[in-house]
Amino acid sequence: MLPDVLKNDLNIVFCGTAIGNQSAANNAYYAHSGNKFWSILNQIDLTPTKVNPHDCKL
Description:
Elements: H1 21-26, H2 37-43
């Protein structure tokens, strides 16, 4: 199981469901190559560049 990533003064919180096998194996959220979570964050301008699963510090 992966830890929650919550800090003070957040502007947005994403609540997921069960951790997939690929995410658990890589110790990173939304790590499956087919998962579009990180790309969508960039497409809707929440991130200035495309973020990768391992860029998220747990």
